[in-house]
Each structure stands twice: as C-alpha cells, then as structure tokens.
Predict the 3D structure of the following.
Amino acid sequence: MEITLLRTTSDSNDFRRLIRILDKELTANYGEDQKEYDKHNHIEDIHHVLVAYADNEPAGCGCFRITDNQTVEMKRIFVKKELRGRGISKSILWHLETWAMELQYRFAILETGILQLEAVHLYLKSGYLKTPNYEPYIGNKNSICMRKKLNM
C-alpha cells in the first residue's frame, strides 16, 4: 500500500468527506455530548490541511489552526477505521508538526476525547504532555488537552 500526503486547504472535497466520517464516529462514541464539541470543530477557511491517501484513495486527514504567534492547535486528525494501525496517523501528525515548524511555530497544542484511547496513546508517544484544559475545553469532563514543544 502506497501512502501519500497532500497539503491542501479546507476547500478539499476529500478532507470534507473524511471529516463527515469522523463526525459520525465521534457522535457514535459520545452521543449528545458531541454537540458541545461541534461548535469548536468548524472546518471553514483552514489553510493548513493534510489529506493522506492510501493507493490514491482518501485514508485520513488532519489540520492545524494558528492560536498565537508561537502556537498552533492540531485538529481533526483522523484515519478511516479499516486503515488504522498502519502508521498513517503518526505520519499525518509528524507532517503537520513539520509544516508548523517550517512556518516558525514553536508549540503545538491539541484536544482529544477521553474515549479516543488510540489518539491519546499516539500523542503521548509523539511527545505531547497532558496539560490543563485550555479554552474552550475548561471544565469539559470528556476532554484531554496536550502540549508539545516543536523541535526546530
């Protein structure tokens, strides 16, 4: 299986299709609680999007948004269920971090859900450390926030 990554924007139809699959999965996991997250997961006007392709078919995605002059927030990192366990999410995360470093950002933050055990494991293994929840996740019992210093 050949994996390729494409830098794009949120205008990508493949990105939008993958996000719809992700949102269905999250709703299945969290039920009504997911509605609290939906308002923070808008995908309009994002300029730093990666789409992973497995044999030229959309397999996964991720993006980041700029939070301040030193920090980006990793968002919407996802791989289709049938393609997990092949290192695609690790590759997406690494390439997003590399892109952020190319743009001179020094830190990455992210939020994931307590039921996303594979994601939590990926982030910890990739050097992210748990941190107190940041806005807008303060007080959200389903959120885990993390931070990493990007190595330049």
